[in-house]
Amino acid sequence: MDQQLIGTIGHVSVPITPTRPGEVVLPVRGGTEAYAAFSDEAIAKHSRIVVIECRSGRSVTVTPCP
Length: 66
What we know:
Elements: E1 9-14, E2 22-28, E3 31-38, E4 48-56, E5 59-64
């Protein structure tokens, strides 16, 4: 798991709901990569998010940027 992702700001590419993961795009190693994303609240497509937890190598928990 890449704990370095915590605090990374990205954006939602597939909407997230509390019952279904979505997808976020994060800046990684000079490029961007897509990750499965979970949240306790609904987050719309194109919203800015911040990573608060790394769940596995390809999934993260996020929250909307303030």
